[in-house]
Amino acid sequence: MIQPNEATETRGVKIWIDLDNTPHVPFFIPVIRELERRGHEVVLTARDAFQVCELADKKGIQYVKIGRHFGKNPVKKVIGLLWRSAQLVPFYLLQRPRLALSLGARSQILFCRIILIPTISITDYEHTRETLAQPRWLVVAEALFNEQLSTKAARIRSFRGIKENVYAPEFKPDFSLIEELGIGQDGMVVTVRPPANEAHYYHPDSDVLFFELMSRICQTPGIRAVLLPRNDHQEQCLRAHHPDWFLDGKTIVPSGAVDGLNLIWLSDFVVGGGGTMNREAAALGVPAYSIFRGKTGAVDRMLEREGRLTMIRSAEEVWTKIAFVRRDKTHPPDHHPREALHDIVNHIEDIIRIERVSSSSRGKAGRS
């Protein structure tokens, strides 16, 4: 870990952050602020997918938009990965960053491997498949530290808690969202995130649980669902195949990007087919249920043991385990700082120092 008298060794480094998916936006806001406070310059790119750019605009983040999503076809995914990596070339030549940082942005990692720029990937899920895009450094949630990870052990650092703890303490409720969405204050509200059916970790059993959940919601008086589709195509398919879900405002889809933490706080409970939204709910103390049926990650197993996340593993459990109960939303959220942000930024600075020393040693060896 970097010591206070070594801080000057890491000053003035230009760090490139690539926003590849929607949860990356709120996560990196406090990270960017802390890096800049410590004297670093941060430049950003963003992929035009999953409302990344829309949310970044809403948060006032300055970035360069590069590339898009290529769908779920494996061949197109590979083509998209390679093409976006090539599209990053002009940005790199203009900015000349010294370090690349992301939450697993594959195009950035692949490109930086080719040009030998150090990459740091922050992750909280050990079952992602990385072949072409393996980062030089991993910063992982502590629960993953003893899991099977692809990067050499000497290049793995861990942080305490979960990555959502980086930004959850800064959350302040905004009840105007109730009026904006038209959900009212009477009855229950559940936020539902469908399975990511275009992701490599998708499992069809997740959809079985999702459809069972929506069936239960539609049969239950006094509850409304705020549905957050992964993209426009998924929304169109759901509306076409399940028009009954949307009758009489039973299910609402926001017209644009919304503050995920705020929506979660205004909900009585959350049901997600992925990871981030469930973990955000856990970080805020909101009841969370996971219908994800891929390989369960170490972080989710930890949250389940702690009683902060309930895993739903069958259609029967959709009816028996998910509690349709109203939650008291009058008490304020927990604003106490948590260790994750401090740990992550310290690791970044430590890695900068190590890479700088390593680069200096290679330079001296080349001149000798």
Under CATH, the homologous superfamily of the largest domain reads: Glycogen Phosphorylase B
Shape: globular
- Kindly estimate the percentage of residues that lie in beta strands according to DSSP: 15-25%
The SSE order reads EHEHEHHEHEEEHEHEHEHEHEHEHH
Multimerization state: single chain
> What top-tier CATH class of the largest domain fits best?
Alpha Beta
The SS-based structural class is alpha/beta
Largest sheet: 7 strands, parallel
Indicate the CATH topology of the largest domain. Rossmann fold
Low-confidence stretches: 1-8
The appropriate CATH architecture of the largest domain is 3-Layer(aba) Sandwich
Total number of strands: 13
Summarize the structure.
The protein contains 13 helices and 13 strands. 39% of the residues lie in helices and 16% in strands.
Can you tell me about this structure?
The structure is a single chain. The protein is α/β, with parallel strands linked by helices. It folds into 2 domains: 4-168 and 337-367, Glycogen Phosphorylase B (Rossmann fold), CATH 3.40.50.2000; 174-320, Rossmann fold, CATH 3.40.50.2000. 39% of the residues lie in helices and 16% in strands. It is built from 13 helices and 13 strands. It has helices at residues 24-37, 52-58, 74-87, 89-95, 106-115, 176-181, 204-219, 232-241, 260-265, 276-284, 298-305, 315-320, 339-367, and strands at residues 14-19, 41-48, 64-68, 99-102, 119-123, 137-141, 156-159, 188-193, 223-227, 251-252, 269-272, 288-290, 310-311. It has a 7-stranded parallel β-sheet with strand order 3-2-1-4-5-6-7, sandwiched between helices. Strand 8, helix 7 and strand 9 form a beta-alpha-beta unit. It is globular and about 65 Å long. The two termini are 31 Å apart. 40% of the residues are buried. The model is unreliable at 1-8 (pLDDT under 50).
